[in-house]
Amino acid sequence: MNLILLFDDDFIAPARVRLSDRRYAHIRAVQQPEAGQTLKVGLLNGAIGRAQVLRVDDQSIELETCLDQMPPTALPLTLILALPRPKMLKRTLQTIATMGVKKLCLINSYRVDKSYWSSPLLADAAIREQLLLGLEQAGDTQVPDVSLHKRFKPFVEDELPAIATDTRALVAHPYEASECPPAEQTLTTLAIGPEGGFIRYEVEKLQQAGLAPIHVGQRILRVETAVPVLLARLFPPL
Amino acid sequence: MNLILLFDDDFIAPARVRLSDRRYAHIRAVQQPEAGQTLKVGLLNGAIGRAQVLRVDDQSIELETCLDQMPPTALPLTLILALPRPKMLKRTLQTIATMGVKKLCLINSYRVDKSYWSSPLLADAAIREQLLLGLEQAGDTQVPDVSLHKRFKPFVEDELPAIATDTRALVAHPYEASECPPAEQTLTTLAIGPEGGFIRYEVEKLQQAGLAPIHVGQRILRVETAVPVLLARLFPPL
């Protein structure tokens, strides 16, 4: 937790918050705060800044906030990801939030196990929990938008062309692909397949929707490695 | 498993192997092979190629191998990593093997919990198991060399300067650092700290050993994200 995310409900007066939940427990255990100390904070979907510890006891902590900075720059990206298995989904949601992805479409694919779609980790609250952990890690406040698309064909035929239009539209695919283009802070659409990859039919449908196949070298990466590698290659550090 | 790693012991005749262990079970379950089919294989620390299924039954599979290609290019890198917590170590060992790191030094740091050094995951066989999984994922055969350095100061003072000499020597550190240099296939030494980062004293010692601090943007990344991001930024896709 490199930033304490604050919610409107936390405010007991202007610029004054009281925390008594997970965040309080974490601050207490890790940072052992004393009155006068400052902590890094940010308002959910808002500004970031510092907060001074006013009071801390066995129940709660009170902070005086000064939120005067912009959160880190977002990636200008719509990431389309074949739904990973639940354990990997959890980590991937944290990773994409940490790296600054603000739009994630989780889609079906031939090699996505059907059971993944009934995972309790796909509940709104469960997704949000992982995203907030990722934001706290990065020092960001802007919650990514995550949408679920249980049917591949309607998504790719009816929704993807509009998403991809006028963007750098790419699908990560190790075969018959061009080398990954250089890092650029430009509007991008990127599709990443499941373990084992998209099947040929799916790659063809993605190409028809305007996505060009790219690869990042000879090595086959797991999804949880492919995501940070592709984002690092496609966007400059900001 | 995108490549089946073969060992000298597997050969029952020249260019002929019989498998009956984890690899057999995996091939059986995932690839449902039939006689005549070809699979991707590689000899441990040797060449890669294809193997034709000669025979498969309830106990074992026999393959005829043709190992005529070089494994993927390695990263010209010595990676120095503060020992991560055991669960993250497991994944990180797989990731570095997948990405082509061939020299990893796991070191101590102020923020490394002492208990991590007694994890059973640090046994030679346990480390090797994770590395082989990473190689099988990537399609590589060259096992990385992993060394353990339980004392920070002797390693950084006595061993690191020689490792770093005549290489692009860097320490990932988010503060008072230059931007990550561009991707280049050049001899590199890279140190990555623990969760929470190296402390100031450690960064100074690393700088005295010749390492220059670099950052990859404003966001603070977890170690398991920082590793693929830094490797993707520092080396071109090969």
From TrEMBL, chains A, B:
Where is the protein situated, by its record's location annotation?
A: Cytoplasm
Show the Gene3D superfamilies listed in the entry: 3.40.1280.10
Q: InterPro entries from the entry?
A: Alpha/beta_knot_MTases, RsmE, RsmE_MTase_dom, tRNA_m1G_MTases_N
Recorded GO cellular component terms are: cytoplasm
**The organism sits in which domain of life?**
Bacteria
Q: Which residues form the Ribosomal RNA small subunit methyltransferase E methyltransferase domain?
A: 74-233
Catalyzed chemical reaction(s): uridine(1498) in 16S rRNA + S-adenosyl-L-methionine = N(3)-methyluridine(1498) in 16S rRNA + S-adenosyl-L-homocysteine + H(+)
The family database entries (SUPFAM superfamilies) matched by this protein are listed as: alpha/beta knot
The UniProt keywords, alphabetically, are: Cytoplasm, Methyltransferase, rRNA processing, S-adenosyl-L-methionine, Transferase
Q: Which GO terms describe its biological process?
A: rRNA base methylation
MF GO annotations: rRNA (uridine-N3-)-methyltransferase activity
Pfam family membership, one: Methyltrans_RNA
Q: Give the EC number.
A: 2.1.1.193
PANTHER family xrefs: 16S RRNA (URACIL(1498)-N(3))-METHYLTRANSFERASE, RIBOSOMAL RNA SMALL SUBUNIT METHYLTRANSFERASE E
Its biological purpose: Specifically methylates the N3 position of the uracil ring of uridine 1498 (m3U1498) in 16S rRNA. Acts on the fully assembled 30S ribosomal subunit.
Family indicated by similarity: Belongs to the RNA methyltransferase RsmE family.
Q: What is this protein called?
A: Ribosomal RNA small subunit methyltransferase E
